[in-house]
Amino acid sequence: MLSWVAALAGAAIAIVSGPRPVAGAFVLDRLLRYAFIFPVGLMGLWAALGHIAFPLRAAQAIGWQTSPFQFEVGVANLGIAFAGLYAAFRSFEARLATNLVLACFLIGAGIGHIRDIVSAGNFAPGNAGPILFTDLLTPTAIFLLLWFSRPRAEEREAVPRRTPARREG
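Now predict its structure.
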């Protein structure tokens, strides 16, 4: 939850200190930028550190037994974190692709948490606490921001597309 507070604070500072008049596209860009920096990038690094360097502690917080799969989850978090930090400063397409991966990973994790709550009554803080909500809401919030910031048809037509050169011969 603190990562979202940091993202909103970072975006607010950028918007207040940004150009005037404030354009809606600028607001959306900064909201997306700081969402990719904090809830995706830094939280991904934090999750990677927890699963890779402290697997026993991470498993206890989730209410699970330690498993070799924690290393794999940690490395997946690491990849998502780096993609998020990259997407923070890149195009709409980079942000969309990163969020598609993030959504598959986090919404899948959220479904796993819900399944564990229902089947095993696991209400451990790392399973049924704030992580459950951020797993579901982070990619959803980013999809909404992406929807509102998507390039319009007239903007797409104004940008010439590169086509691969045909090879003769």
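The chain has a mean pLDDT of 93.
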